[in-house]
Design goal:
The chain has 702 residues and is of the alpha/beta class. Helices cover 21% and strands 20% of the residues. It starts with a helix and ends with a strand.
Length: 702
């Protein structure tokens, strides 16, 4: 093999990108516009000894390529790019650094933060560090594995039926004693029968997984004995994280991930991946040279035109991928197709998604990335969810994404927190910042954001809690963040939570306090899961998971973030199960925009009322201290008869006058399980407890 490698490297093809085995040998193709030459470096089976360096003699439109006849899967390799070290021109070539193929399907080695990985000499700024790092560098392994997908098929859940469940692969099962110890915290743990049973009984339809791409922990965290637990620091866009694999029986991480997907699909559950194509783990101009920076810094990254030695930092993580460059855009598209076609995932949640649509003049819904996604015959069929903000100028783009995209709706989050939790903190005499007009707008799909752009209500992903912030239990329990364990002097994460908090700090044995917290949790869950749009639940909130007030636990790979299955609030879990079942059965709001106009039979599709039975209109919508309102849904999505939602976020019970007909309560959030025997007839009043909502269905009088 070594003789063939040394003498028989051929020109090969500039496609496909990366290393591909064709049954007879391996073709290598790597992109670099500004490199003067490119070398392929081959290693022994341990990846520690460099055996030979071979020039990639093929060079076609910025792609360097070569073909190795006789080479087999399992071959370990890296790259060396020759070119100018001119940071002032945006070029950071350094052939003493072994580089990882951006298209690597499997990464070999363990990255350690050593000076050898840095081209900028950290002890003598302004000078180059030309120490060879090959023995320490991450390498790629050629793969050609096959997987038996059997009769696997995507569940294809419609948006109207979708309930998202955001979770971390490790945190979900790490403490579940019903799962074998060796599988906990892994892909196999998430697909274990105990996990499937919980997800199915809960009623969610899709797991939205925090990043599973191969990622690195930042140097600061490693020095402090911490890690980037969330994984938003990608290095390998085609590699599954080995840290989330059990490795049981010698199974590869790829196969364990694929078996997880196949098992979840068999249970009718979709798999959505949180993906980070806005930056890489190479950080800012003081970061290491691992892959993209050394291959072609000026092409892979966005650099300020007037200061190309620096990086445009719209991600807040030091650098920003340059999707204006066609080959960088191709890499992202190839990666997405890989996860759909080879790994069978059902969609993506794009971290800091406006970065992907940034042109030379700012964000555009017509940017090349969105056009490429829309025309792609594979990707146009999957669910695409945007986190619609980044850290750059003009980065807040809620409602501004193209048709076909879903978006996290933080306006829904903030309004619902304000209406329920802040009102509990400040009392009924003060304004919460979310009046009844705002509340109704968010409850009914945020038409101000989506309707004018001809986007359906389901494009709004409604949530009150995500991985990024307080858990639901902590939201109603803490006034201030408690992030001391992050070792940033409690300065990281969101600022104090008082504006959205009931003013109750930490654990308490006071039954009145526990009752209030419980009501607020249930009201927020009900508001999210009954609203018009696509609901998202954060894992653990269904049974009261707490992070002890840490609202930025991105670096806490421990019991702070792991779901504590032994401390479940079983009442809250039963309530959430009942609530999701009601959503599936009734679909309170249809996935269409309501007009508020009566039909020929005098039936309004949706109408709004005060508790005294008067129509809610004009200035009454914006009374700053009003805490009650009723929503009559004349044309629900799935219920065979009209529905009535009664909301009371005040501190005392209020009586609501019922419309004509006989009404039976299906949900009362003042009850720990949500059950209710309330019923009444038009013209009579129905009590609605403080900090609660009631859902009723019109039925024939018995």
């Amino acid at each position: 093999m070594e003789r063939l490698i040394a003498t028989d490297l051929r020109v090969g093809h500039p496609w496909p990108m990366g290393a591909h085995f064709d049954g007879h040998g391996v073709n290598f193709a790597v992109f670099s516009t500004h490199a003067h030459s490119m070398e392929l470096c081959l290693f022994d089976s341990d990846g520690t000894q460099e055996l030979t360096r071979l020039p990639l003699v093929g060079h076609t439109v910025d792609v360097w390529h070569g073909y190795l006849p006789g080479a087999q899967p399992g071959l370990i390799y890296g790259l060396r790019a020759h070119g100018p070290w001119r940071p002032d021109k945006g070029h950071r070539f350094d052939a003493s650094k072994l580089l990882l193929d951006p298209y690597a399907r499997e990464i070999v080695g363990n990255f350690s933060w050593r000076d050898e990985h840095f081209t900028t000499d950290r002890h003598h700024p302004g000078h180059m560090n030309t120490r060879d790092n090959a023995a320490l560098a991450l390498k790629a392994r050629v793969t050609n594995d096959q997987f038996d997908w059997g009769d696997d098929a995507p569940p294809g859940t419609s948006l109207t039926d979708t309930v998202l469940y955001e979770c971390h692969v490790k945190g979900f099962s790490k403490l579940n004693l019903h799962i074998p110890h060796e599988l906990r915290g892994s892909y196999a743990g998430l697909s274990h029968p105990a996990s499937i049973r919980h997800l199915k009984q809960l009623g969610i339809t899709a797991v939205s997984l925090l990043p599973v791409h191969y990622a690195l922990s930042e140097e600061r965290l490693v020095r402090q004995g911490l890690s980037n637990y969330w994984g938003y620091n990608t290095l390998g866009f085609f590699c599954v994280s080995t840290a989330l694999s059990s490795g049981l029986g010698g199974q590869s991480a790829r196969d364990e991930f694929r078996l997880m997907v196949r098992t979840l699909h068999a249970a009718g559950l979709e798999v959505i991946l949180d993906v980070v194509y806005n930056h890489t783990a190479e950080a800012d101009e003081f970061g290491p040279t691992i892959s993209f920076r050394g291959l072609d810094n000026a092409s892979y990254y966005r650099l300020p035109p007037d200061q190309p030695s620096h990086y445009e930092n719209f991600s807040g993580c030091g650098n920003t991928l340059n999707l204006r460059q066609p080959k960088v855009l191709q890499m992202v598209m190839d990666s997405l197709r890989y996860w759909v076609q080879d790994m069978h995932v059902d969609g993506f949640r794009f971290d800091l998604a406006p970065v992907l649509g940034r042109t030379d003049t700012g964000f555009s819904a017509q940017a090349a990335f969105f056009a490429a996604m829309a025309q792609d015959p594979v990707l146009c069929r999957v669910k695409m969810i945007a986190e619609p903000w980044d850290t750059g100028p003009g980065g807040y783009q809620v409602g501004g994404f193209p048709r076909g995209w879903l978006e996290w709706n933080d306006k829904f989050r903030d309004c619902m927190r304000s209406f329920w939790v802040q009102s509990a903190a400040i009392g009924d005499a003060l304004s919460t910042g979310c009046d009844r007009g705002d509340f109704a707008m968010r409850l009914c799909g945020s038409s101000d954001l989506f309707q004018e752009r001809r986007r359906a209500p389901a494009k709004s992903v409604n949530y009150v809690v995500s991985h990024d912030g307080f858990t639901l239990r902590d939201l109603v329990s803490y006034n201030q963040r408690h992030n001391e364990a992050n070792l940033e002097n409690n300065r990281d994460g969101h600022h104090n939570n008082l504006s959205f908090n009931c003013g109750l700090e930490g654990p308490t044995d006071d039954p009145d306090v526990r009752n209030l917290r419980g009501r607020l949790e249930r009201a927020l869950l009900a508001n999210t899961l009954l609203a018009q749009g696509t609901p998202m639940l954060c894992a653990g909130d269904e049974f009261g998971h707490t992070q002890k007030g840490n609202n930025n636990p991105y670096c806490q790979d421990n019991t702070t973030t792991w779901m504590d299955w032994s401390a479940q609030d079983t009442d809250l879990l039963a309530f959430t199960q009942h609530l999701i079942a009601l959503r599936h059965r009734l679909q309170p709001f249809a996935n269409q925009w309501y007009s508020g106009i009566a039909d020929v039979n005098g039936l309004y599709d949706v109408s709004w009322w005060n508790f005294d039975g008067s129509v809610l209109q004009r200035e009454a919508w914006h009374q700053p201290t009003a805490r009650t309102l009723a929503c009559l849904i004349g044309k629900p999505g799935r219920s065979p008869s009209p529905l009535l939602l009664l909301f009371n976020s005040s501190a005392k019970a209020e009586a609501a006058l019922l419309p004509s007909g006989h009404w039976m309560a299906l949900l009362d959030t003042s009850h720990p399980h949500g059950q209710s025997a309330l019923q009444g007839t038009g013209g009579t009043t129905l009590p609605v407890a403080a900090h609660s909502l009631v859902l009723l269905q019109k039925s024939p009088r018995v």
